[in-house]
Write a structure and sequence with these properties.
- The chain has strands at 3-8, 14-15, 29-34, 37-46, 57-64, 69-74, 83-88, 94-98.
- With 100 residues, it is mainly β.
- A 5-stranded mixed beta barrel has the order 4-5-6-8-7. Strands 2-1-3 form a 3-stranded antiparallel beta sheet, with no helix packed on it.
- The protein starts with a strand and ends with a strand.
- It binds zinc ion (ZN).
- The site of zinc ion has 8 residues, from loops.
């Protein structure tokens, strides 16, 4: 459940997927597992997709409750403002699940 994010103690930057160095202040970031709950900020449908994917792919930018934003794909039509849960998959990509 959930996904890994990184947080900078220095400037408060939150990143998902996590990084070890803060891109803002170069401070070391702490990585921990967070809830994937969040809100769809914006979304798009991609018709030209990488090999191994069936078009179209729905892609959404999700603002996490934990802070930060993550780009993830969905198997359903996304709407701005939609309440969702982002799951980190084994291959390191992210998937959006509907929340009832
Ligand atoms: Zn920072």
């Amino acid at each position: 459940m959930g996904l890994n994010i990184s947080v900078c103690d220095e400037c408060g930057e939150v990143l998902a997927p996590p990084r070890f160095k803060c891109p803002e202040c170069r401070n070391e970031m702490k990585v921990f597992e967070a809830s994937g709950m969040g809100i769809v900020v914006t979304h798009t449908t991609v018709h030209v997709v990488p090999e191994g994917f069936d078009p179209p792919i729905m892609v959404g930018l999700v603002k996490l409750d934990a802070g930060g934003q993550v780009l993830a794909r969905a198997d359903f039509e996304l709407e701005t403002g939609m309440r969702v849960n982002v799951e980190e998959l084994e291959d390191g990509t992210h998937r959006i699940d509907l929340v009832e």
